[in-house]
Input
Amino acid sequence: MHTHGDRHRCLVNSKDSEKITPGSRSAGVVHRGRRWFSRTSRSPEGLGAEARQSRGEDTSHSPGFTRTPIPPRHVHAKHGSGMLRSVFRCLGTNPVVGRRSMSQSSLAGKVAIVTASTDGIGLAAAQALGKRGAHVVVSSRRQANVDKAVALLQSHSIQVTGTTCNVGKAEDREKLLQTTLDQCGGVDILVSNAAVNPFFGNIMESTQDVWDKILSVNVTSAFLMTKLVVPHMVKRGGGNVVFVSSVAGYQPMQALSPYSVSKTALLGLTRALAPELAQDNIRVNCVAPGVIKTRFSSALWGNEDIVDEFKKQLSIKRIGEPEEVGGVIAFLCSEEASYITGETVTVTGGIGCRL
Ligand SMILES: NC(=O)c1ccc[n+]([C@@H]2O[C@H](COP(=O)([O-])OP(=O)(O)OC[C@H]3O[C@@H](n4cnc5c(N)ncnc54)[C@H](OP(=O)(O)O)[C@@H]3O)[C@@H](O)[C@H]2O)c1
Output
């Protein structure tokens, strides 16, 4: 039987030069993060809200939605277009509208657990949540990776706590929750991101060991982690759960069938949990990434022939970046997504995987 490490390496390119480490990717993440902020914080009011957040002030109670008046049909076209122009001017400068967009994406005061978050999509999700003001709790199996991720996030002024957690172990999941409660006083967000793929080949050659491992880490642990945190979300009046599935959950990838099936199960878990937890004001959503440039998928994007073939299926002809998934996860956890639950957002560059 393989060790866990051996199994995990099945999808990892052996060329060290092509591996991505948190350090090597950080420059891209930060750069993109800054661009995001400058694009969305154009108005002086928006910048003010951002500054208030960085000082630790809660901006989440800023005035809410105001309806922009629509000119009645009978208004003369000339006057109507003048009115429309003023409406657009108002949208650009109205301080209430400016504050609204900032406060709805703000996660100030929230506590977010992201599993498997010392690299790749998990780290990018932690960064996106942290940039919106959440205190993020990062974890993975190896202490050295946790330390690196904590240092990286702290260097971007993100409030962060780190601990080791192998999501496949009950005692580790409990420790992750307890550390969060001890250090942050509660939990509002769970991003369940961990997955393994110990098998590459024909489905009929996969063994029970393979299935047990994949289903236990990728599906059962995701559910059990949710079950652990929900009572604490209820105490806070609600929360958000986001599962990280895969495009393979819609269309099984050749040679990755057991893994694909586990990702299909997460689509079902999202749908099953959403109605039950809605009564506790907890939204449950899912993201299904396509091929994203991380260590996990380096066997795919590290091979030029595979990439060229794969690009034919894409509308956006490039491999995705982790922060392009992280931002969607943060959106799903924000007030901007307040009417979305039981949903899976595909982040694939346009792969046609569903209607
Ligand atoms: N990359 C893609 O193309 C792609 C596409 C679709 C879906 N996804 C999904 O996205 C998620 C993240 O993948 P990724 O590509 O970001 O991977 P990645 O860059 O290789 O990062 C994996 C992270 O998971 C941690 N980890 C691995 N096994 C763990 C376990 N049992 N318990 C806790 N932490 C664990 C690793 O740290 P340690 O080694 O320290 O534990 C690392 O921080 C997975 O659910 C994957 O299925 C990825």
